[in-house]
Amino acid sequence: MWALAPFESLQQLKKLSMVVFSKLQELTIQGCKSLLSVWALATVERLQQLKNLSIGYCDLIEEVLVITKEAGDHEETESKKITFPKLESLELRYLPKLKRFGLCQADDHYTVEFPSLLRIHITNCPELSTFIAKSIPSTSTTVEEVEERRMAEEIMFSQKVVFNNLQELTIQGCKSLQSVWALATVERLQQLKKLRIGHRDLIEPNVISRLVQLEELYMEDVGEINASLVSEIKDLQKLRVLLIRIPGGSFVPEDMFDHLNLESYHIQIGPYFGFSFKKSTRVLRVNNPKDRSLLYEDGFQ
């Protein structure tokens, strides 16, 4: 294990012992308030044993990984690959300036692969908009090229990011994020068992129903519940735990739980008010305009 906590004037990690990194299994970076980025590509290639990465409370960091033309192979290829072969857990939290996990400044096309990744936990990164971004040169030839790149980077996990064994995903407090993944890439999430997201709009239609292994679903701002969302949830035959907050809603459909075998649920309708959730409970809370709530436990009445 290796930890940085805190070095408030640290801006870059470079020229550190490659012997240390070649055997490193756990890295925690916390409270380094001047840090702008963590690694260049040459360093990542030495992190073959890294299993856990946690970065938090770094006020200025904009990306974790920077891929420069000088850092990698200069031969021109159609696509190149960066692999974190043993990384199992990735945690990014309270990073107010974080825009992406990786920034590619090279001319080549890169994909980032996490073959062993089981858990991603991203919270309170308000400027985060994508996972891997490619810098736009000032000499870009056409407006169409710039627009195409911009649209691709509106999706958090595009085809540039590969993880086929992910089991747990949490994304909360990421106000700039528009979409977590597209329908075309959802096949990479067939092992996902636990999903926690801050807003329903981050998930495109017809995606949730394809997460066939999902056991726990937490959606903390659904907006208004509708028939399509109910239908998608009802398709999750392995779902056992459900938490939904519906600030703009006024009802829950009667057939909401048809064909589901939930062990616990907590559904909150109306403006937000605090509550504690335990997996052993079955609760429906309705907050009415007079700031009073109705509480139903162990089923609807």
TrEMBL record:
Residues 18-137 form the Disease resistance protein At4g27190-like leucine-rich repeats domain. InterPro entries: At4g27190-like_LRR, LRR_dom_sf, Plant_NBS-LRR. Keywords: Plant defense. PANTHER family: NB-ARC DOMAIN-CONTAINING PROTEIN, NB-ARC DOMAIN-CONTAINING PROTEIN-RELATED. This is Disease resistance protein At4g27190-like leucine-rich repeats domain-containing protein. It comes from Ficus carica.
